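pasting Elongation factor 1-beta for the record, 224 residues
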Amino acid sequence: MGFGDLKSAAGLRVLNDFLADKSYIEGYVPSQADIAVFEAIAGPPPADLFHALRWYNHIKSYEKQKASLPGVKKALGKYGPADVEDTTGAAADSKDDDDIDLFGSDDEEESEEAKKLREERLAQYESKKSKKPAVVAKSSILLDVKPWDDETDMAKLEECVRSIQADGLVWGSSKLVPVGYGIKKLQIQCVVEDDKVGTDMLEERITAFEDYVQSMDVAAFNKI
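structre below
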């Protein structure tokens, strides 16, 4: 298990493939597992590794709260796909984790041999992954769009919302829901591709119709 060297292009590609159908390194919420992997990366992954870049930017937003995230940090080699060998502790398998020196090998020849083995394993993994179709992460979102008052033309408001078009965005069913004093809000469903459309973009585009829209809220958000 492992990602290999996350400071290398090969390691980042393994991470990108691993995150193709996952939001986080472990589980369904950000945790210390994400922080451990995040801190092993030198910087933002390149744009073509969009799964890894999406995850990197998301975890970066938790920088001030990282100490409070759930879980306990484990060795980096404890995370990642099972069919990539962890080489982070290969020089000291017989020692306790606290005694491992990742950079202190006295045998340079052995270190080069381990490096070659790791690169071969990563190449095999990438070759196998490249033959599998990428999984597109999608979410179903239910939006509440509120008008200014009971005189707002709700048919026109919905027309404005549905006029918003973007790659990775599909509008679904809708209905008007009473909120009081004769005012009704528009409740509308949409399905988005996570890498292409976010709630921030939807809110910015919808509230731009300021003649009709007072505010927009996310009523429900579910991964598909």
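Confidence is low (pLDDT under 50) at residues 88-107.
The longest strand covers residues 169-180.
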